[in-house]
Amino acid sequence: QDCFESLVENFCKIVGTREAIVTQCIEDSVKRLRVLAWWRDGRLEANVEYDLAGTTCEETVNEGRMCVYQSGVGDRFPAAKPFGRESYLGVPCFDSAGKVIGHIACFDNRPLDAELPDRAILEMFAQRAGLELERQQVWQSLHVLSERVSNLRGDAFFSELARSLATALGVREAFITECMNYPTTRVHKLAHWKNQSAMQLIE
């Protein structure tokens, strides 16, 4: 079973709600979310995209903190009314750099139970979703990288490889080396990317 599908199903069970979603931020500006898994009334629903503004999820994603509305969601958030939602609980998902990249949330057509699961348990679900989200993003970036460098040769190949690796992994510096001899006592830099610029190559 898909990781996200399993997460939303079990999130519903642990909180005791009828509905749960896992989302991914589509843009850095975080104006839209893509639903990666949606569990409702015991089955999976078709995934959708939606605008974040004016929804129950906006505070969770924009402020990067867990939000709970025990009741009154339909009155406070008009976008929730068509779904008959009365309560909401959402936890942000972070990448390894601490950036919000999505969230996991649950809803119900009745007030939430007064006694909710321990916060650490709820955040564990969000952490698992965040790890999988970041893994997929890195994999996609590496796939794009592979296509980008496939036709390059020589210095251009290694320079683009270093730049793309730094971008894909979200780090400020990356370099590629080759061993000069064996046993290795010296290495030669084939490419060095730092602070969004190609650096001078040295041994």
Describe the structure in your own words.
The chain is an alpha+beta fold and about 200 residues long. The chain is built from five helices and ten strands. Strands 1, 2, 3, 4, 5, 6 and 7 form a seven-stranded antiparallel beta sheet that branches. β1 and β2 form a beta hairpin. α1 runs antiparallel to α4 and α4 runs antiparallel to α5. It is elongated.
Outline of the structure:
The longest helix has 31 residues, at 119-149.
% residues in beta strands: 25-35%
The main pleated sheet reads as: 7 strands, antiparallel
Helical fraction equals 25-40%
Rg over CA atoms = 22 Å
Number of helices: 5
End-to-end C-alpha gap: 49 Å
The pLDDT mean sits at: 86
Low-confidence stretches: none
Order of helical and strand elements: HEEEEHEHEEHHEEE
From the helix content, strand content and strand pairing, which structural class follows?
Answer: alpha+beta
The tally of beta strands, per DSSP, is 10
Instruction: Please tell me what the overall shape is.
Output: elongated
What brief labels describe this structure?
alpha+beta, 203 residues, seven-stranded antiparallel β-sheet, three-stranded antiparallel β-sheet
Task: Break the fold down into its secondary structure elements and pairings.
Layout: H1 3-15, E1 19-25, E2 32-40, E3 43-44, E4 49-51, H2 58-63, E5 67-69, H3 73-76, E6 87-94, E7 100-108, H4 119-149, H5 154-169, E8 173-179, E9 187-194, E10 197-198
Antiparallel strand pairs: 1-2, 1-7, 2-3, 2-4, 5-6, 6-7, 8-9, 9-10
Helix pairs in contact: 1-4, 4-5
